[in-house]
Design goal:
Elements (H helix, E strand, L loop, with lengths): L7 H11 L5 H12 L3 H13 L3 E6 L2 E6 L9 H37 L3 H27 L6 H33 L6 H8 L15
Antiparallel strand pairs: 1-2
Helix pairs in contact: 2-3
């Protein structure tokens, strides 16, 4: 693009190629980044092209719209339009199919990206083998042990625990009743009394009474 041209050739070629209406702002935004055209240069170039009759200009309120001179294009009959409509429909269907394929490929790529590599899988398999070997070894030691607790012995322990816990609760209740009876005539607090006689409660020792 020469300095004398001021973007005339570029803008004319762009409007003829796109063959759709544009404002000066549209053309500026579309061409500025790639070709470095200034806003005023675009406005002047499009006004000049319109004055020379190379493009057409329409005014809608305060806005001007520019588009290619349709006289330069070959007239299209109804048959041609139907063919183009058919081609557009086929291409639209093809685009939808391609987009669907792209989405499927993207999903597969994400799944593969989150999967373990071959080296990572081999390393994890080796770790699992070592863990399994350790579990087998512990299982064999348990099976070969001579001091297994029989179901009868286990049941006996549970029954004894129930008896001892009940006795524990009974004695704790009796002791509490005795202490409360003494405290009715004791001039000091319960804590001072317990400290004086050297009694430690379950709570002092942080002992929790088992449930039966």
């Amino acid at each position: 693009m020469s300095k004398k041209d001021n973007g005339l050739t570029l803008i004319l070629a762009y409007l003829n190629e796109k063959n759709r209406p544009y404002s000066t702002q549209d053309v500026f935004c579309n061409l500025q980044k790639q070709h470095g055209l200034g806003k005023m240069a675009v406005v002047k170039a499009m006004e000049q092209l319109a004055l020379e009759g190379k493009i057409k200009e329409k005014t809608y309120g305060k806005q001007k719209i520019y588009f290619a001179d349709q006289a330069q294009f070959k007239a299209v009959n109804d048959g041609d339009l139907k063919v183009m409509d058919s081609q557009i429909s086929e291409l639209s269907t093809e685009v939808q199919s391609i987009n669907q394929s792209c989405r499927q490929l993207d999903a597969e790529l994400k799944e593969l990206s989150s999967s373990l590599t071959t080296e990572e899988m081999m390393s994890e398999i080796q770790e699992l083998k070592v863990e399994c070997a350790g579990c087998r070894e512990r299982l064999e030691r348990i099976k070969s042990a001579k001091n297994h607790v029989t179901p009868q012995e286990k049941e006996k322990v549970y029954k004894e625990q129930t008896i001892y816990v009940k006795e524990w609760k009974k004695r704790k209740r009796l002791a509490s009743d005795m202490i409360n009876a003494i405290l009715e005539g004791y001039p000091k607090s319960k804590k001072e009394f317990l400290d004086e006689v050297g009694v430690e409660t379950d709570e002092d020792c942080k002992v929790v009474l088992p449930s039966t």
